[in-house]
Amino acid sequence: MAAALMATTAFAADPFPADLRETALATFKALPSTTRALANNPITSEKIVLGKALFFDPRVSASGVFSCNSCHNLATGGDDNLETSIGHGWQKGPRNAPTVLNAVFNIAQFWDGRAEDLKAQAKGPVQAGVEMANTPGQVIATLRSMPQYVEWFSAAFAGEADPVTFDNFAKAIEAFEATLVTPAPFDAFLNGDDAAMTSEQKQGLTLFMDKGCSSCHSGINVGGEGYYPFGLVKRPSTDVLPEKDKGRFAVTNTFDDFFVFRAAPLRNVALTAPYFHSGKVWDLKKAIAIMGTVQLGEELKEEEVELIVAFLNSLTGKVPDVAYPVLPAETTATPRPVSQILGK
Amino acid sequence: MAAALMATTAFAADPFPADLRETALATFKALPSTTRALANNPITSEKIVLGKALFFDPRVSASGVFSCNSCHNLATGGDDNLETSIGHGWQKGPRNAPTVLNAVFNIAQFWDGRAEDLKAQAKGPVQAGVEMANTPGQVIATLRSMPQYVEWFSAAFAGEADPVTFDNFAKAIEAFEATLVTPAPFDAFLNGDDAAMTSEQKQGLTLFMDKGCSSCHSGINVGGEGYYPFGLVKRPSTDVLPEKDKGRFAVTNTFDDFFVFRAAPLRNVALTAPYFHSGKVWDLKKAIAIMGTVQLGEELKEEEVELIVAFLNSLTGKVPDVAYPVLPAETTATPRPVSQILGK
Lengths: 344, 344
Known about the structure:
Two copies of one chain form a homodimer.
Chain A lengths: L1 H12 L6 H6 L19 H12 L11 H4 L14 E2 L3 E2 L25 H10 L8 H9 L2 H10 L9 H12 L7 H6 L8 H12 L16 E3 L19 H4 L7 E3 L21 H13 L5 H12 L31
Antiparallel strand pairs in A: 1-2, 3-4
Helix pairs in contact in A: 3-7, 3-8, 5-8, 10-13, 12-13
GO cellular component, one term (chains A, B): periplasmic space
Protein name (chains A, B): Cytochrome-c peroxidase
Keywords (chains A, B): Electron transport, Heme, Iron, Metal-binding, Oxidoreductase, Periplasm, Peroxidase, Plasmid, Signal, Transport
């Protein structure tokens, strides 16, 4: 009798299918409770300290203006909230900056997956002319000019004869970034806490799976695990899918990869407007409606969109505490910042 | 006998004039042990929390790229280590960004003292076309669009009918900045710890006072307390003192203020290259030599310069621990970033 009453009360307060968690666990995974191991890059506290300093150091850019954190700002969802990032010489990047939060769980990095992991990714923006516009040689000269950095590299890569290298720079950043994991109410729900998600969020989760969103947006990051054409059913408008950006085709040179992108990982999506690789859509509701039309061939109803937004809000997690670093002081040997744009 | 032996030992290890501390205390002051009270702006923990968020928030700039911390970076001595800062549209500012660390103790803010305090200062760069290029109205619209900011303003300015104002924005930033104080070995020495400074640093301190540097660089901030002509004895070269920047003349319209600037506060000067309002000198030794020539009319010897550098190193202090903030999430009502340069 008591058990029956409790069941009824629970049902009245928050009805959701008895198998919702089980169904969800067939598609999604909660964040792991320990930091993910990295290929060829054991994580140590020394490496994390160094990687954090490098992540926040604007002197790794040619101009001295941009750090990794400029475009992957831990204060604002791990991205920069711009359509596309502004870089060296006020140039605009070609694609929206993805969040660094939980990025370690993506199958590969960048919208087209052209970097196999975060250490490969970390080498990209530093050298991109429209981003940091620097060279590996200049980055290493900068870091070697500061004794504190040399000490930190020696501690993080103990036993190496020449620890201050561009490879180790990237490995240290990867180690720090691997700690940027944001447990969310959705994880608590998957881990057994019925009360972690609201009724609307659970309805949204059900809908997200029933409509087919989770065919592409699955796994630990609710996305980020596979590559799919943007415009599976219907080609999006050219402002949202500009014709000149062919997506993964540029990586594979395979005709099938025209307009193919890595499915966006949706953790913290409520914090990372604007949306899509073009960054042209600022309203999450509008982004969901577009996905319904172009990927599922279905005009989602207003209330369906709102329930999906509710579910996506349950993916907003707790950003780890990060003490703002005090960086090594420059010396007279430190290369000076260069603000000119190449060729100008 | 024991006392005599001890005195001899101390003398041999670290000889310095018995009255050095007393002499120094007639010219300098140690940092106070509590946060300085602000005029018309009582400091509360709520105001500091809000002010820290605002200080780190790039969305107070029109482009969404620059925060206060971009040019006054707490990771790199409270400044940006650039000749002059890069701002909106990659424009270059007219003068070197001064450090925000200990700035609360300066007689007034900016190189020409045109802002009477930090809350007046905070309103400047936000509106400067070459810096953040924003307007008070747009800043307030941005902050009001985020419920978390409205809550924080309400808590920090409790009892005010309309707490989210540009004045309160500036007051909160001032309250946070007032906490950015960096106790240094020099303070410990002034407070009675003989061992806090090395023998070279004490010799440098003696020289700094004997040569007359401390005539202008005095007080809590070892500078920042008064206005003096740059080129008291001899006009510096035009690369270091560009002719078009007339200094405090632009503030007072007084002929006597031609090329007059606030004496640079020297705390953490070892971290804040390049030097002078023009930012044209990268080597602290060279900056000291120039000051000898143009302010004191004396060619300082190499070893004298080195002792003064040693003293200045004793002004490098401990930056307070700052937890990197997680900022309020944008809403669909948040004004979008504008990266265009006005008139282009």
